[in-house]
Structure formats: C-alpha cells, structure tokens
Design goal:
CATH superfamily of chain B: PhyR, sigma-like (SL) domain
Distance between the termini of chain A: 93 Å
Helix content of chain A: 25-40%
Order of helices and strands of chain A: HHHHHHEEEEEEEEEHH
CATH architecture of the largest domain in chain A: Sandwich
Number of domains of chain B: 1
Structural class of chain A: alpha+beta
Oligomer: heterodimer
Number of strands of chain A: 9
Strand content of chain B: under 5%
Distance between the termini of chain B: 68 Å
Structural class of chain B: mainly alpha
Shape of chain A: elongated
Strand order of the largest sheet of chain A: 1-2-3-7-5
Largest sheet of chain A: 5 strands, antiparallel
CATH topology of the largest domain in chain A: Immunoglobulin-like
CATH class of chain B: Mainly Alpha
Number of strands of chain B: 1
Order of helices and strands of chain B: EHHHHHHHHHH
Helix content of chain B: 55-70%
Strand content of chain A: 25-35%
C-alpha cells in the first residue's frame, strides 16, 4: 500500500469501517510519518467538529415548541366546543333522546346523547351531562359497542378519565369510528355512587321514538 | 351556558407527547442548528417537525429508539425544505452562521475559538447536502445506518456523499487541518 492508496481509504479507516484493508493500513502507517501526520490532522478536525458550539435557543424554547405543536394540531379546540354546544342544543330539540342518571343522594345528573351527522364514518357523538351541583373529580367511563373505536385512540373502545363537572349541563363530544348501530355504555362515578346508562347509537328515527322531555327540561336535573 | 368536559384524548395526548418529546428537544435543536446555521431557522425547523409529529403520536410511541429516529425526521425535513427552496442545480453557498457574529472580537478569541470559527465558516460554505451529512455523522455522531433507516437508503451512496463532503470541507479549511489558525479573515 502506498500513500495514495492509504489516503483513498482514510475516511473508512478513521470511521472504523475497514475490515479487509485495516491491517495493511496499520502497516503503512507504521512506516509513513506523512500519513501518520495526516491521520493526526484528521482526528483533530473530527474532534473539533464534535466540539463545535451551539448557541442556546431563546428562552422557554421547549415549552414554546410543545405548546405551539399541540395547539396547531388538528384536534378539538375550545372554540369548536363552544360552537358545538349551541349545535347540540338544536340537535337535541330535533333528535335527542334523554336518559336520566340519578346519583343518590347528593348527586344527580341527566344524560343526553345525540348522534350527530348521520352515520358516515367517523361520526361525532355529543353527550350532555346535567349535574344538580358541582361534581369535582367525577369519574367518567365510556364503552363503545363492539367493532367501534375512539377516533383519537385507534383500536380502543373503552376510555376512563376524571373530569370536574359543574352544576348544570356539561357537554362532551366524542368522535368515533364504527358501525352505525350499537349501544355505548356511559358510567359516571362520584364519591362511591355509580350509575351506568346505555347510550343508543342508533338511527335518528329510532331515537325519536324514545320518550323525550321538553328541551328545557333537559337542562334540569331529574 | 353549557360547560365543556375536556375529552381525555386532548389532555392525555398532550401529556404523552410532552413526555416523549421534551427530553429530545435539545438534541433536535442542536442538530437543526448545525444543519441551518441559524438559531431562528433551527428553532423554526424543530417547531415544524414537532407540529407535524403531534398528530402521529401513536406512531411515535411505537419507536423503540426515539433519538436517531427524530434526528432523521429533522434531517429529512431540512433537506426537503432546502430542496423546495432551491430548485437550482447549482450548489448553494450558505450564509455565515450566526455563531460567527456572536463571537467576541478577534483580539479576544482564544486559539480554540478561532479554530471553531474557522471551521464554522468553512462548514457553512458547503452545500446544504454536504453540510447536513457532516452535521449528522461527524458533529452529532449518528451513523449512516441510522440515517438510512428502514427506508433502506443505500449506505454506499451515503458513504460516498459523506466522503465528498469531507473532501470539500478539507479543501475549504486548507489541508491538512491544523489546530493553529493560519489566516483569519476579519472582513475589515
């Protein structure tokens, strides 16, 4: 191996990628001060590259990036919720089935379900839980029918979480994938009391057959 | 007035995303800076990557070793940006990095700082593609296999590109590279 051969393999040698030619490179280096000097120079350059400084990002960079990313993402936004709240009331007047959920003795709620937007997939289901008083830390559990899933959680049809329910109506909007028919189960637990209600995700016509109270009563606890 | 119940997806997803990404952000930013040469551009690049990744949270959670995967996303995003921006086949001569102007005056610089500035100036005279490869491999220490990823980019192609990038850098620095700065152009 001469100097030209060695230098053509210098990168591979320093990267530790040489297998067959490694021994030949070592032997060449032992007898060639010029190439040893070249290797030393290359190593200094690589060390200097690894130590190049990086200016600090501006303050709160991590918080800012995360917050912006999550705000910009296509997920439900508060503004949309407010619009849906108004839409939900209108839909309830047309198609809402009202289901009572009693929370003895101190907690009561009325729960309404509205299949919104027909049965195209994915579809949005809106629930209104009316609480007679504030229920901080209420446990909510939603179980979708077989072959359904939450749009935000692929493959998952049961979700449980804690929410602070305020006195009066509390709106929840859930986007789901699945067949047009079936019964979801909604469970609200609060301080040892628990009630589960079936929430039919059937057609609008079927929902209308249910015994519907006036819309105004939907916002009153049962 | 109807009160709104937060759906768990939003809050829970935000928490999961933050737990995954926050420990990686400094490394992503460092790579982005050495790719772009600008603090502003680096911040913007990381921001764009994170914004695109948030809806792909489930995919992120399945990545076994997240660091190199995210670095590759940053790298690819940078390359895509530059390709969109520069349709010209002529190699782009990059602007000098902010770092150069943020350094103290020449009389205050140590040999080490002079050396770093010299390297940075040369680095940002490389094409975007060459600089990106050197940033990836020689500055950040990622492997070419990690860059190739599952997409199966040809390692041989990456190696030859890296070889050309280093040769160009050596040429700009004046070979062989010496820790002593021979000439420093002040621009005055």
């Amino acid at each position: 191996m001469d100097c030209s051969d060695f230098r053509s393999q210098l990168d591979e040698y320093l990267d530790g990628r040489l297998v067959a030619g490694h021994e030949a490179c070592v032997r060449h280096l032992e007898g060639c001060p010029d190439c040893r000097s070249r290797v030393a120079s290359e190593r200094r350059l690589r060390e200097a590259l690894r130590q190049l400084p990086t200016p600090m990002p501006r303050g709160s960079f991590e918080d800012r990036v995360l917050r912006t990313a999550m705000r910009a993402a296509p997920s439900p936004r508060r503004g949309a919720w407010v619009r849906y709240a108004a839409a939900a009331a209108l839909l309830l007047a047309v198609a809402g089935g009202i289901l009572s959920l009693r929370m003895p003795p101190q907690a009561e709620a009325t729960l309404a379900t509205v299949p919104a937007g027909g049965h195209a997939e994915p579809r949005t289901v809106r629930l209104v839980l009316t609480a007679p008083r504030a229920l901080p830390g209420a446990q909510i559990r939603l179980e979708l029918p077989d072959h359904s899933e939450f749009a935000a959680y692929k493959g998952q049809r049961v979700l449980e979480w804690t929410a602070d329910l305020v006195e009066g109506p509390n709106l929840l909007e859930v986007t789901i994938h699945g067949p047009g028919k079936g019964v979801a189960l909604a469970t609200v637990s609060y301080r040892g009391s628990q009630r589960t209600l079936p929430l039919p995700l059937e057609s609008t016509a079927q929902t209308r057959t249910r015994n519907e109270p006036e819309l105004s009563s939907e916002y009153q606890h049962a | 007035m109807v009160s709104l119940i937060p759906f768990p997806g939003r809050a829970a997803a935000a928490g999961r995303f933050e737990r995954l990404l926050r420990p990686q952000l400094s490394g992503m930013y460092r790579l982005a800076y050495h790719l772009t040469g600008s603090r502003d551009d680096a911040e913007d690049l990381v921001q764009e990557v994170c914004t695109r990744l948030y809806p792909r949270l489930e995919e992120l959670e399945k990545i076994e070793v997240l660091g190199p995967w995210l670095a590759r996303v940053v790298y690819n995003q940078f390359v895509d940006q530059r390709r969109r921006r520069d349709n010209s086949p002529v190699e782009c001569v990059g602007e000098l990095p902010e770092q150069a102007s943020e350094l103290p005056g020449p009389e205050e610089l140590t040999d080490s700082q002079l050396q770093q500035e010299h390297i940075l100036q040369a680095l940002f005279r490389l094409s975007d593609e060459h600089r990106a490869l050197i940033a990836w491999h020689d500055i950040e220490g990622y492997t070419l296999e990690e860059l190739a990823g599952r997409e199966g980019l040809a390692i041989g192609t990456l190696k030859s590109r890296l070889h050309r990038a280093r040769a160009h850098l050596r040429k700009l620095l004046g070979e062989p590279f010496s820790p002593a700065i021979r000439v420093r152009e002040t621009g005055d």
